[in-house]
Amino acid sequence: VPLIIYDPKAKHQDIDEMVLNTDIASTITDFATIQPPKNYQGKSLLPIVKTQTKTLGRTEVLIEHLWEFDNIPPSEGIRTTDYKYFRYVNDKSWEELYDLKNDPDEINNLAKNPKYAQTLTKLRTKTDNLIQKFKDPYSGIPTGLTMEYIRKPSQVAIKDFTPEFAWTVPKEAVTQKAYQILVASSKNNIENNIGDVWNSGQMRKNQSRNVSFNGKPLEAGKTYFWKVRIWDTDNRLSDYSVAQSFKMGSKLVR
């Protein structure tokens, strides 16, 4: 998407630089000769407008679209001068990788091409690192997960086949406006945010105790994995909690 800055005093120029929407706030404060807050992540574009420089010195940027819409799934990734990598937050197993120099229209997805496996791994790791670096410090992450009030359900056999989940709402969230629980049949699925056994979807409730399982039937003797994320008092979405495993025993006979 092109960015156009019009200043009748400035000389016209076209520059092929990576700029971000977060740069706009830093640019406005620079125009107003105001020191931007330390937590601003953008760079001022004023030196470019004034033709003092033609580069911001960027070689890579984090790209995120984290809002939940019916037809636009949330995504995250990284763009470098040569490649664009991104994945879908709600199913991290689906990845896309494009060679921007040879495929600027992003037609050929190289994510499953063995020749680009090293590039894919490198950009995936960079994306993870940048997300940790720039993550929202305000909403916190749910902790203290329990099932049937058991803190380590992997060490016992769960006999209730509609078990109840619980977690601790982080103090940074102030209050919980909603939650989403994922239950997966494998560690790989839960790491990729795939709730193949149960995906509660966004539940607009402040409940964080006695949340009953409502997914596919659980099987005796099988190990499952679950985690939860919340929306805080300002409706900010947290990261998922660390996943917890649990093993089903035999059904209770009543």
Describe this structure in words.
Helices cover 15% and strands 25% of the residues. The longest helix is centred in the middle third of the chain and has 18 residues, at 117-134. The chain has a five-stranded mixed beta sheet with strand order 6-12-11-8-9. It has four helices and twelve strands, in the order H-H-E-E-E-E-H-E-E-E-E-H-E-E-E-E. It has helices spanning 22-31, 46-49, 117-134, 187-191; strands spanning 60-65, 75-80, 83-88, 91-99, 143-147, 157-158, 164-168, 178-184, 198-199, 211-212, 223-231, 244-248. It is elongated. It is of the alpha+beta class and 254 residues long.
Q: Which spans have pLDDT < 50 for at least 5 consecutive residues?
A: none
Gross morphology is elongated
- Fraction in helix: 10-25%
Q: The biggest beta sheet, please?
A: 5 strands, mixed
- Number of helical segments with 4 or more residues: 4
Order of helices and strands: HHEEEEHEEEEHEEEE
Total strands: 12
**Distance, first to last CA:** 63 Å
- Side by side, the strands of the main sheet go 6-12-11-8-9
> What is the mean predicted local confidence, pLDDT?
93
Strand content: 25-35%
**Structure classification:** alpha+beta
- How large is the radius of gyration? 23 Å
